[in-house]
Amino acid sequence: MSIENTASQMRKGILEFCILSIIEQGEVYPSDIIDRMKEANLHIFEGTLYPLLTRLKNAGLLQYRWVESSSGPPRKYFLLTDAGKLFYNELKTTWKEIADAVQQITNANPNQTK
Amino acid sequence: MKQVIHINYQGRVVPIEQTAFDLLKSYTDSLSIHFGSELGKEEIMHDIKDRIAELFDQRLKKGAACITDEDVNAIINSIGRIEDLKAADVSEETEPEQKTTNQQTSSSKRLYRDETKKIIGGVCAGLANYLNIDVTVVRVIFAVMFFIFGFGLIPYLVLWAIVPNSAEGQIGAVRKKLYRDGDHKIVAGVCSGISNYFGMEVWVPRLFFLLPLLATGITGLNNWHWFAGFLPGTFITYLICWIGIPEAKTTTEKLEMRGEKVDMNSIQHVIKEEMKGVKERAEKFSKSAEQQVKAIGAESSSALSRFINAIVRIIIVMIKAISYTILTIIGLAMVLFLLGLSFSSVVIFPFKDFMLNGEWQNYFALGTILFFIILPILAIVVSLIRKIAGIKTKNKWLNISFISLWIVGWISLFGLFSTLGKDFSSVSHRDNNERIIPIQQPTNGKLIIKLKKNPIFDDEENNIIGFFEAMELFKDSITINNVRVKIVRSLSDSFEVRTVYSAHGSTRFAADTTASTIQFNINQQDSLLFIDRATSISKNQKFRNQQVVVLIGVPEGKTIDMQDCGSVSNYNNNVWEFDNWQMESDARKLFIMTNDGLQLVGLNENQKTGQQDEEKKEVDSLLKLKKDVEKALQDKLKQGNRRLDSTQ
Known about the structure:
heterodimer; A: mainly alpha; two-stranded antiparallel ribbon; 2 strands; B: alpha+beta; six-stranded mixed β-sheet; 22 helices; 20 strands
């Protein structure tokens, strides 16, 4: 098991959740998602993002809207569907549970456990 | 100058360089192959192309005249190369089966050697896979190139060495890596690491590294010169390995060191692939040759242009391979050159005491040898080892220290040569160093010149290194053959001998002083004139290109006999100049000074007279012996007679 493999598996696992979370906060344009992720130090290729968005859209979790752009042709803006919102909330609870569990396990000091 | 074309890209008119367009085209093509298995492939491709068009727009709005190669490359980097996308692909878990087949066939645009279809090294199979043509075609081309030009072999071998194995391209598969084994170390674990890598017993590399040391120990230090040559070699090799090879610290690294597979999944994966490969091979071999030929025919006739294209690409790959070969050879030549330099500098090293003056020059010399010559060898070898071992992490401090030390080497080199150059900058003045050697005129009008062997030459105990008698190094001095004999016309009626000493120095005064301390002797024995063959220089004096020129003036009508004078180094304006580098020279030259200058009378005449002399001597001694014996006999006879007389 190399550290790189494990780390990339971890990142992959939370990628969908993060993207859904960004979309949940409001309608976004894909390159904005990239920028937001970059700000959080989570790098993702556009070549990875687009297939993921399409997959989520095909799964009925996302929908998009054509928005007129000041420059050039209209752009695709993504937002969550109702199913997507449910899905996201479910993921959020799961994440909270996981995060708490991981927090508890990694911070556990054997001497303090009762 | 680049051609700019206008394209209609996703509903926008985009001015773009031809090369950039080609790049873009091949990139989007590869993307579309990559997404080949995706459900919403068309939509994804459309989205990505839209995005590219938008990025083009942004660039053009910023004032760019057209889209350049750099622009396209930047866009490709932000969207992600196929390799990046593969590594970061999220769909891996959902469609694992499709993924692997995908990778095996069309989307794999990296060149791998195909271990599953190999005959020798899998190079042809890998190329065929990469170029998307039948493997037999590639094999035929390689075979033809091998038999006709004979140089198909080199690209093949290079590709074999450089192109990674297909197994390495698969996720999870582990190839053996060279690490130092810290768990089984004696010094630094280099030997145990090497034994792990090559799958040999650990004592083998250890013996290799220790052999010169052992041999030196057994044969004793007296015979140091033979084995000692290897001692620094193995020592340096060990050091290089120590620096260049990382130690296996983590479990992953330790497993990689032994070439063991890291996890169960990868084992399963590899076995699966292996089985598939065996199956494919079996099928392949069961195919009749006829079918194969048909396949080639179909291939070439159905897509002739594609075939030509493929050949062009093969040629390009071969050219690349050949240039890699040339680069490797150049690199090796450089290493050898530097090794030669370092070796010669080691040989010259004992001479440094006779050359260098003052502390600084010693530091400069040491700095030059260590940092200018030996360091780059270390650097090249270390980088080679890292490359072979597949270490990609950049060691920043190592690079910085290499570069800074090399700069120190350059400074040392410059310092050494400038200070040494200064020490040699002035030449001694001739007038101050010319003197007349008084000689007795030879009775028979013939002067015989013999070169006298310096007695120190026989001092074998103190002799350290010799260069074919041109220069001999002893413990406290060096002896240099720097004596030249010139024959000129005498200004008077008699033979004249003059010597001119010369030397270099930082100032003319220093040069004169050095010249005046030259030890040089000329002795006379009747008509024989013995001239020192060489001068010796002590450590205090330093070598400053000391030279002695012996000028022998020969009056008109007189002859001069040059014995074991070596070769004539220069004959100019009727002045004969001899240097004396050949010790055991038979050449004897007899000259006579005429009105027109010095004339060569004969080469062997003197040799004959010499022989006659010896014969005469021999006869004389025999005659003397005969006389002695006769006298003794007569005495005995007389004695006998007397006794007879007395008894009677």
